[in-house]
Structure formats: structure tokens, C-alpha cells
Specification:
single chain; 6-stranded mixed β-sheet; 8 strands; Nucleotidyltransferase, domain 5; alpha/beta; two-stranded antiparallel ribbon; about 190 residues
């Protein structure tokens, strides 16, 4: 992994994975910088309430997230839960099939810089659990249309990777929306 650090000139985006069974709140903090993605922090909380996890990262980390990416649900439960905690910039990210999500995430990893330095909030090295998670993250391709994931050994690893997947899917959708080519045929017909 390439070294990086928090840069106050860029926005911070938090991607969350929240589960009930077992209870887990995991979050990664990302700074998109052009084509590069800088992961500046991550936390995983087993058996903690969402309010405790949010309070802990707000008090411990030297930045505030401008957007919180949360799991998609039809009722917008997670968006409401984050708003109730004072985080009004929550956005749902629609789930994709696992094989597609895995490929999108693997493509994102080639553009990632991950901060692994010892920090005040990470005495054993920043993002160490995320690094462990990524070391266990892979997919086997059986043939062109069939994928199988290799299960992760520890729960916290699974949830941090899911948070990264959430960011990757959001980043892919955002970049596809920004890079849509103009419809020249429609323009030409209007001019002629």
C-alpha cells in the first residue's frame, strides 16, 4: 500500500457498514483526490450502538465527514438513524450483486492510498484492521459468469471490507454519472 495522510483541502467521505447479527458498526474514511482514493482512517465496533460508534469517531478523529454513505433499505431507516444523530448528509448506496461489487472494489484498490502510520488515534498503525481485512479479501473466478468469494475469517474484517465495497460502488456510480458523453446525435439533429 502507498502511504498517505489526512489533507484538510479535500472533503472526507465516511462509508458505513452496520449489521444487527452480530451487532457491528464499521466505517472507513476516504478522501477522493482526483483519480486517487486516499483511505485516511477506519474503525470497527463490535457490540456497540450506532450512537456510541458515531460519537467515538467524532471525538477521536481530527476530521469531520461531509457525507456518510449508508446501507440501502426501502424505508430509509439508516438515513433516518444518522440524521437523528445530527449527521444530515447521509446517502444510501444501493447494493449490487456480490460478484459485481467485488470486481468494482478490486478495481478501486488499484487507485487506493492507505494511511498506515502510527497516529494518536491508532497506536498500532492506522487502518491496521482494514489492511488485515484486505489481505483476506479475494474472489475466485470459476468461469466467465460464475464467481465465488473466499469467506473472511473474522467478523470485523468482513464488515470493514463491506464498508469499502459501499464506497467503491458509490464511487463507480458517481464517476459514471460525471463521465457520461453528450448525445451528439441528438444535438446534430436539433441543429440540422
Amino acid at each position: 500500500m502507498r502511504p498517505t495522510h489526512y489533507n484538510p483541502r479535500y472533503e472526507v467521505i465516511a462509508a458505513w457498514q452496520v449489521e444487527f447479527l452480530p451487532v457491528n458498526c464499521s466505517v472507513i474514511f476516504v478522501q477522493p483526490r482526483g483519480d486517487e482514493v486516499h483511505i485516511i482512517g477506519s474503525e470497527s465496533f463490535m457490540f456497540e450502538q450506532l450512537s456510541t460508534a458515531v460519537s467515538d469517531v467524532q471525538n477521536k478523529l481530527p476530521w469531520q465527514a461531509s457525507k456518510h454513505l449508508v446501507p440501502y433499505d426501502d424505508e430509509s431507516f439508516w438515513v433516518g438513524a444518522f440524521r437523528d444523530l445530527g449527521l444530515h448528509h447521509a446517502a444510501q448506496v444501493v447494493e449490487r450483486p456480490l460478484a459485481i461489487t467485488t470486481v468494482i472494489t478490486q478495481a478501486l484498490l488499484g487507485r487506493c492510498w492507505i494511511d498506515t502510520e502510527v497516529r494518536l488515534w491508532a497506536e498500532e498503525g492506522n487502518n491496521q484492521l482494514l489492511i488485515d481485512s484486505l489481505n483476506s479479501y479475494s474472489v475466485r473466478e470459476r468461469n466467465e459468469e460464475e464467481f465465488t468469494t473466499i469467506p473472511l475469517e473474522w467478523q470485523y474484517q468482513q464488515y470493514l471490507v463491506r464498508a469499502l465495497e459501499r464506497y467503491a460502488v458509490w464511487d463507480r456510480r458517481k464517476s459514471r454519472l460525471q463521465s457520461r458523453r453528450p448525445n451528439y446525435k441528438q444535438h446534430d439533429l436539433a441543429v440540422i
